[in-house]
């Protein structure tokens, strides 16, 4: 059967919940065929992964330190290396031979201000 991939949906909100993303690279996002600039590519690593995964066959894992690329439509000027970010209106699709790669396209990106070190302790 063909065309089945268009009916498969990735739960980005569920996947990204309980994760913190940190910027490690910024580059232009260009169309491979035309070379036309489409926006920015923001490479991030998952620095915190609090997701409760369903382990199978005794295998335990995390996606901590996994690298992802957010493709942002349009201009992005407010992001720097090591910023903590969250994509805005992200749509993600699995691809690859084993469906273990993720393509993420976003309308924008939001920089999340880090909480001062002593702040959390004072609130509790």
What does this structure look like?
- The protein has 124 residues and is mainly β.
- The chain is 8% helix and 43% strand.
- The chain contains 2 helices and 7 strands; from the N terminus they run H-E-E-E-E-E-E-E-H.
- The protein has a 7-stranded mixed beta sheet with strand order 5-6-3-2-1-4-7.
- Strand 1 and strand 2 form a beta hairpin.
- The longest helix is centred in the N-terminal third of the chain and has 5 residues, at 12-16.
- The chain is globular, with a radius of gyration of 17 Å.
- 10% of the residues are buried.
- Residue stretches low in confidence (pLDDT < 50, at least 5 long) are 118-124
- Give the tally of β-strands: 7
Secondary-structure element order, as H and E? HEEEEEEEH
Radius of gyration, in angstroms, nearest whole number: 17 Å
**Overall pLDDT:** 88
Distance between the termini: 55 Å
Question: For the largest beta sheet, what order do the strands appear in spatially?
Answer: 5-6-3-2-1-4-7
Class derived from helix and strand content = mainly beta
Strand content: 35-45%
Shape, per Cα inertia axes: globular
Tally of helical runs: 2
Major sheet size, sense and barrel closure: 7 strands, mixed
Helix percent band: under 10%
List keywords for this structure.
8% helix; 7-stranded mixed β-sheet; 124 residues; disordered C terminus; mainly beta; 2 helices
